[in-house]
Amino acid sequence: MTDAPPTLGLILAGGLSRRMGGGDKPLARVGGVAIVDRVIAALRPQCASLVLNANGDPARFAAQGLPVVADDVPGFAGPLAGVLAGLDHCARAHPQIAWVVSVAADSPFLPADLAARLQGARIAGGARLACAASGGHTHPVIGLWPVDLAADLRRALVEEDIRKIDRFTARYPIATVEWPATPVDPFFNANTPEELVEAERIAAGEVSR
Fold this sequence. Notes:
Oligomer: single chain
Number of helices: 6
Number of strands: 9
CATH topology: Spore Coat Polysaccharide Biosynthesis Protein SpsA, Chain A
Radius of gyration: 16 Å
CATH class: Alpha Beta
CATH architecture: Alpha-Beta Complex
Distance between the termini: 33 Å
Order of helices and strands: EEEHEEHEHEEHHEH
Helix content: 25-40%
Structural class: alpha/beta
CATH superfamily: Spore Coat Polysaccharide Biosynthesis Protein SpsA, Chain A
Strand order of the largest sheet: 5-4-1-6-8-7-9
Number of domains: 1
Low-confidence stretches: 16-21
């Protein structure tokens, strides 16, 4: 879809990496490349601009050369807070862009047609939002968001204490776009040391069957 509206790519790296034993999952290396750099390489051609959501010292992502925005809702409120930070950043820094596509910073195999297919499904279905799926499972973090949803999202986070993405998105018409999960699930994410080993195998072309 070549006439999709311009979209900001939001890379969510605000998690606490508990299952990885702390540290920054996105800076772990797969095939000799930091996962976050793989995400950037996949997303950059699809988006008008990119921003990284991360909490703590932004200098640890200086090598990526992207703007870094922290959650603007306190208390590590989860990925919805990162989405809100991305929507707010887009409204401030890129007022001409009306859409944000969010991805997880620990997903090293993102598809090259992510933004276009999400936009296409949203438009075709007359939906407010779009979400990725693979292997029969939805991936709420991988989604398309209108910038003008920020006020509703802030209210849900601050006043209603909503934390689960799909609990919030259930309020709106949403298009779900399915990608094949074989031979590689494009939304595989490296949450644990074991999954990092698996990512290395995938990157080396040694996909487990």
